[in-house]
Design brief:
heterodimer, A: alpha/beta, Rossmann fold, nine-stranded mixed beta sheet, four-stranded antiparallel beta sheet, 23% strand, B: VC0802-like, seven-stranded antiparallel beta sheet
């Protein structure tokens, strides 16, 4: 099943011809309208005419997240503000967020690519999509929402948090598709069990999980506990939002990246050299149709590989391997890869936990230790010690079960975790640098 | 017949108790009695004061997590076995004591204990049934 059969199955030759045409037009647009690119391309002595084949893309300079921060908030926009109909921002771990703007055409493209992603995952018109991605500045909620409407499915705009209500709605409304982070799906299943509800009895058929890297083991766990087909989705706000790439339900072997809108490359993150298909490196994406904020060779910092092998589903678009991680956020604790976002989703699933936490990593006697500090607000507070201790123990257990890492939860006073402008610093790594 | 107690979450950090008591002192609030439950990471300070609402307000303004709990004040004969008698009576009626601590002032010849029960109403009727005197909050706040 396809949402847009013509483009999703376009023969490689035609697809690459389309990419070339769109790339040239995109380069011409940014050179004309974005001072940052005008300067960097002039410095490199490049113009749209320098592009004779797709191979020429590798001569162009990269765009880094820092460039987006330096252009805060609007200086990378390629159209006048009156053409921007939506603004999102991504949470940087440090400093100012990165801001992205969408024209109406960008929103239409995003909706279509998300609709394509839903269909690839096995979703169709008539499905009831329970969307637990956060609504707001984060692109997850609204991205999935517009795609669901474009597809013509029924979407329930749940957003994140309030697990009990999520479960009630899922049960009562007969949700057939769940969209959230993989760890939150497991957390909900666990919470449901405590209420005497077995997720396997719900009508859920497909789960579309993303926004954090997850493993095949976790997929097996989720599929067993939730009795649904779990599909990996990839996206990042700088490029568009969710729906940049998706696994097809037919193969579940790599995520198709929508190549009529994005050109992916894999590079050696140290040298910047482009790596051949199959080799693991950093994913770099060029947005070839985006109007609001087109990016040339954007360094995603995500580690993966590319394959152009034909896929069982019939789509001709290249596939990226499931993410091994985002190079700059990942913590390695006693050999276990841990992303702050995974811990965050576990914490957010605990009733009453505020989104203020900090992870403190130390090394004691050659062993890494992880302390998770959680603020005790009024909703969490009990005047009996045993209740507070049970709370810490429960969070410790969940983190251990879901992420395989032992931690110690420390309850702290409200507002004792440092707030910063933009996003709070989530990780304090006191281990000696290697 | 309840007594209002406020509970405050305090991290085990230098000077936190001093800070709480200073905030209350500056607001003109008199602490009638207190108890501190502590763990290695945090403590719960439980207070009975002469103005519960005001105490809660000023502490919240300073960013503390504060909650209000109903506790029960019981007169206990100040003699050997006085406390044992009351605990035995409660035990017999299946009443669970979550925690307890002593009130600073005496009430005539009797000592006063503050109790937190898992089921306050049931505890109150058990106490009355066994002839113990429960003190109302208003008396304690101004004692």
């Amino acid at each position: 099943m396809y949402f847009n059969e013509e483009f999703e199955t376009l023969p490689r030759e035609a697809l690459e011809a389309l990419q070339l045409k769109r790339l040239k037009s995109m380069v011409a647009r940014v050179q004309e309208n974005v001072p940052f690119y005008r300067e960097s391309l002039a410095k490199a002595g490049l113009t749209a005419d320098s592009i004779k084949s797709l191979q020429d893309l590798r001569r162009f300079p990269f765009t880094y997240k820092q460039d987006m921060r330096d252009s805060y908030p609007y200086r990378l926009f390629a159209v006048p503000m009156e053409d921007i109909v939506r603004i999102h921002a991504s949470s940087g771990t440090t400093g100012k967020p990165t801001v992205v703007g969408y024209t109406q055409k960008d929103i239409d493209t995003w909706s279509e690519l998300m609709a394509r992603s839903f269909v690839a995952a096995g979703v169709h018109k008539g499905d009831i999509i329970h969307n637990s991605y956060g609504y707001g500045l984060f692109t997850g909620g609204l991205g999935a929402h517009y795609g669901a409407e474009k597809l013509g499915a029924s979407v329930i705009p749940m957003s994140g948090g309030n697990t009990k209500k999520q479960i009630m709605i899922m049960q009562d409304f007969g949700s057939t598709v769940l969209t959230c982070t993989p760890s939150y799906s497991l957390f909900m299943a666990e919470a449901a069990r405590e209420e005497g509800i077995d997720f396997r009895d719900l009508k859920l058929r497909v789960g579309i999980f993303g926004a954090e890297p997850w493993s095949e083991a976790m997929r097996a766990d989720i599929e067993g506990k939730l009795n649904l087909s779990a599909v990996d989705i990839y996206g990042l706000s700088e490029i568009m939002g969710p729906g940049v790439a998706i696994e097809c339900c037919e193969a579940k072997k790599g995520l198709h990246i929508w190549e009529d809108h994005f050109i992916p490359e894999i590079i050696n993150p140290e040298t910047g050299e482009v790596l051949p298909a199959g080799e693991k490196g950093e994913l770099v994406i060029t947005t070839i149709t985006k109007e609001g904020i087109p990016l040339l060779r954007y360094r995603t910092r995500d580690i993966t590989s590319l394959t152009y092998e034909p896929c069982a589903c019939g789509r001709t678009h290249a596939r990226i391997a499931r993410m091994s991680g985002r190079s700059d956020d990942m913590l390695i604790i006693r050999g276990v890869n841990v992303f702050p976002s995974q811990i965050e989703s576990i914490l957010m699933g605990v009733e009453g936990v505020e989104p203020h936490y900090v992870l403190i990593v130390e090394r004691k006697d050659n062993l890494d230790t992880l302390e998770v500090q959680v603020e005790v607000g009024e909703d969490l507070f009990s005047d009996e010690v045993k209740h507070l201790q049970a709370l810490s123990a429960r969070i410790e257990k969940q983190i251990k079960e879901m992420l395989g890492v032992t931690c110690r939860v420390r309850l702290v006073e409200p507002k004792s975790i440092t707030r910063s402008e933009g996003k709070a610093k989530r990780v304090i790594d006191n281990r000696p640098k290697a | 017949m309840h007594v209002e107690q406020i509970s405050i979450f305090i991290e085990n950090k230098f000077g936190r108790l001093a800070e709480v008591t200073r905030i209350l002192g500056d607001a003109g609030i008199n602490i009638r009695t207190l108890s501190l439950a502590d763990t290695s990471d945090f403590g719960i300070l439980r207070l009975i004061v002469n103005d519960t609402e005001k105490a809660k307000l000023v502490l919240k303004e300073k960013g503390f997590t504060v909650s209000k709990t109903d506790v029960v004040a019981v007169e206990i004969p100040d003699r050997p076995g006085g406390l044992a008698d009351i605990l035995q009576a409660l035990d017999k009626d299946g009443i669970n004591v979550e925690y307890m601590y002593a009130f600073v002032e005496r009430c005539g010849e009797n000592a006063v204990m503050i109790f937190r029960f898992d089921e306050t109403e049931k505890a109150l009727s058990a106490l009355a049934g066994n002839g113990f005197t429960v003190l109302p909050g208003e008396r304690l706040y101004s004692m």
